[in-house]
């Protein structure tokens, strides 16, 4: 069979298969074009989930007659003025969307350049251009999507599902540009110049109000990298990643480096099967990120992905580590100084009895004591020794009886589970087990790393590509005590391991290799370390059902006030709840 050049209509339909996957893809491309045209008000209307009709109207700059004739030509674009693919500052730039859409649907365009006497109308089926009375911006109407390629229709889902995909596209674009107004089917409305907090509530739901933390972090190096936005407090989470909005230089993306970094930052404050909420905006030199990866433009490639990942994890963990009283934690500098991909220090052999610092209301030695005494007596004795060694706590109770410390002063204990306290803001309930679990966990994280060399290196046979994948994260694994190197082309040798870790090293390294090849990084060792520390902290902390005296309860409150990530335990459960006096007044109809 001889070589031939495909006809234009077939070339455009092939391109449409990459660009126009479903109605939501059409909406995304058209709205991004409107944003690039300088629009600050965009209206989208769809019928039958976009299958029958999609109409996008904007108040942007509009087009001249010549621009209109060119815009549906393959690879025609107004977005690369200097022809530099390494310096892209537009949402769209490939010049494929309009001809691709026109090849699989019936499309018309009405447009008017600002200052022109009249507008122009283009029928993309006939390529006929004529004057029109359209007087501002651009309107693109797409009808009978995939009518020209009916085989594609059977791959569409129901109208409701397709509409929800369009809603998701509009939400992500609305989150990227709070200065722009968006309306979808006159039902989903996001006003122009909306306050960011209000837009987040409009997009994510009313339950996020007051429960998001500000992020504003900058790289200490000269690369100019900065991340701004908001992340949810750990007790606010979803069952999926639906409310994770990530942007790179203003472009909505679904990038594995960013998603992996977000997961790593929340690892010790949220269950692995739960997802935080976020709206994070990463800006960096356009030459350090390649957005020309896929026709849909939802993926990017970073020049230095490990550096980007480390920057994000370190910054988000610092935000999450803020203590209740907003004072720097004594160990915070040490915590943030280590490689953020593996920020936790391995404690001295967790099977050994640890020396817990003063003012912790329980010690592992008390738990494992061989003395034949009731557990409560052993516990109370340990706490009394800790409290007696503690420096006196200055009273913060004013003459009016109101305590200005964040968790207030102790009132009593409820059900031998909860500590009740009064603070200036209202009524405080603290889960005693969750509180001490977090304290223990954070103190164990900062203990000195201890490793143990193998008498004879452990050699793990692997495929050559797996050896390469493992070696790309060798430095990160070294940070948690696993020292390894290549042993020829088909094996890896392990020379040193974290103390007291007994694992199937072959299975571990193969899993690490799979993760690296799939996502560019691996969280296996970090997750195993977190699980080890979390289990130890859980089993060696104050139990629900244990009776505490006032001094013990006060010690817990004071410690949790200065502990990072204190609002939740290592499993993501709340540590304390503050009930404002106004809510109590409402319960008793005093307002």
Mean pLDDT: 79
* Overall tally of domains: 4
Q: What radius of gyration results from the CA coordinates?
A: 30 Å
What shape does the CA trace take?
Answer: globular
| Derived structural class | alpha+beta
Say what the CATH topology of the largest domain is.
Answer: formyl-coa transferase, domain 3
CATH class of the largest domain: Alpha Beta
Helical fraction: 25-40%
Strand order of the largest sheet: 5-4-3-6-2-1-7-8
Count of β-strands: 24
- The residue ranges in which pLDDT falls below 50 over 5 or more consecutive positions are 326-395
Blueprint of the fold:
Blueprint: H1 8-19, H2 23-36, E1 41-47, E2 53-58, H3 65-71, H4 97-104, E3 106-112, E4 119-123, E5 128-132, E6 137-143, H5 159-176, E7 181-184, E8 188-190, H6 196-204, E9 212-218, E10 226-232, E11 237-238, E12 244-248, E13 251-253, H7 256-265, E14 275-276, E15 278-283, E16 289-290, E17 301-302, H8 305-320, H9 332-336, H10 364-367, H11 375-389, E18 409-414, E19 418-423, E20 426-431, H12 432-445, E21 451-461, H13 464-472, H14 474-478, E22 483-486, E23 491-498, H15 505-519, H16 524-539, H17 550-561, E24 576-580, H18 581-587
Parallel strand pairs: 1-7, 12-15
Antiparallel strand pairs: 1-2, 2-6, 3-4, 3-6, 4-5, 7-8, 9-10, 10-15, 11-14, 12-13, 16-17, 18-19, 19-20, 20-24, 21-23, 22-23
Helix pairs in contact: 1-4, 2-5, 7-8, 12-16, 12-17, 13-15
């Amino acid at each position: 069979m001889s070589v031939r050049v495909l006809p234009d209509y077939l070339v455009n339909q092939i391109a449409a298969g990459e660009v126009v996957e479903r109605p939501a893809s059409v909406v995304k491309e058209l709205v991004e074009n409107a944003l690039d045209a300088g629009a600050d008000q965009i209206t989208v209307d769809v019928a039958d989930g976009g299958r029958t009709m999609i109409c996008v109207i904007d108040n942007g700059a509009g087009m001249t007659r010549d621009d209109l004739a060119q815009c549906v030509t393959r690879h025609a674009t107004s977005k690369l003025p200097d022809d530099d693919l390494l310096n892209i500052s537009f949402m769209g730039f490939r010049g494929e969307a309009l001809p691709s859409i026109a090849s699989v649907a019936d499309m018309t365009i009405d447009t008017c350049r600002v200052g022109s006497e009249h507008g122009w109308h283009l029928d993309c089926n006939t390529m006929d251009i004529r004057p029109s009375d359209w007087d501002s911006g651009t309107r693109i109407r797409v009808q009978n999507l995939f009518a020209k390629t009916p085989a594609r229709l059977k791959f569409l889902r129901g109208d409701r599902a397709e509409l929800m995909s369009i809603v998701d596209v509009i939400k992500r674009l609305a989150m990227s540009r709070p200065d722009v107004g968006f309306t979808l089917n006159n039902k989903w409305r996001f006003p122009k110049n909306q306050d960011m907090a209000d837009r987040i509530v409009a997009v994510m739901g009313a339950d996020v109000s007051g429960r998001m933390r500000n992020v504003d972090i900058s790289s200490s190096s000269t690369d100019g990298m900065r991340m701004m936005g908001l992340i949810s407090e750990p007790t606010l989470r979803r069952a999926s990643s639906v409310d994770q909005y990530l942007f790179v230089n203003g472009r909505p993306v679904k990038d594995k480096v960013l998603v992996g970094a977000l997961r790593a930052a929340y690892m010790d404050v949220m269950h692995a099967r739960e997802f935080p909420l976020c709206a994070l905006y990463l800006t960096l030199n356009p030459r350090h990120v390649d957005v020309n990866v896929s026709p849909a433009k939802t993926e990017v490639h970073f020049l230095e992905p490990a550096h980007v990942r480390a920057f994000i994890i370190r910054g988000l963990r610092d935000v999450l580590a803020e203590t209740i009283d907003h004072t720097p934690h004594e160990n915070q500098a040490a915590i943030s100084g280590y490689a953020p991909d593996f920020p936790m220090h391995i404690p001295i052999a967790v099977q050994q009895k640890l020396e817990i610092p003063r003012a912790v209301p329980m010690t592992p030695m008390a738990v494992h004591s061989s003395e034949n005494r009731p557990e409560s007596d052993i516990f109370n004795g340990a706490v009394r020794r800790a409290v007696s060694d503690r420096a006196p706590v200055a009273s913060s109770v004013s003459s009016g009886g109101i305590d200005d410390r964040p968790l207030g002063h102790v009132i009593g204990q409820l059900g031998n589970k909860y500590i009740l306290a009064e603070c200036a803001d209202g009524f405080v309930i603290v889960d005693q087990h969750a509180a001490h679990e977090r304290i223990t966990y954070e103190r164990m994280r900062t203990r000195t790393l201890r490793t143990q060399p193998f008498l004879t290196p452990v050699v793990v046979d692997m495929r050559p590509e797996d050896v390469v994948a493992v070696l790309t994260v060798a430095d990160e694994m070294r940070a948690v005590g696993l020292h390894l190197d290549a042993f020829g082309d088909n094996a890896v040798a392990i020379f040193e391991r974290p103390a007291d870790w007994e694992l199937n090293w072959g299975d571990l390294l193969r899993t690490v290799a799979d993760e690296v090849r799939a996502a560019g990084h691996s969280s296996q060792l970090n997750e195993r370390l977190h699980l080890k520390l979390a289990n130890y902290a859980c089993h060696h902390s104050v139990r629900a059902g244990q009776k505490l005296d006032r001094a013990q309860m006060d010690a817990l409150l004071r410690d949790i006030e200065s502990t990072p990530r204190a609002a939740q335990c290592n499993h993501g459960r709340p540590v304390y709840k503050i009930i404002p006096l106004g809510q109590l007044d409402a319960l008793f109809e005093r307002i």
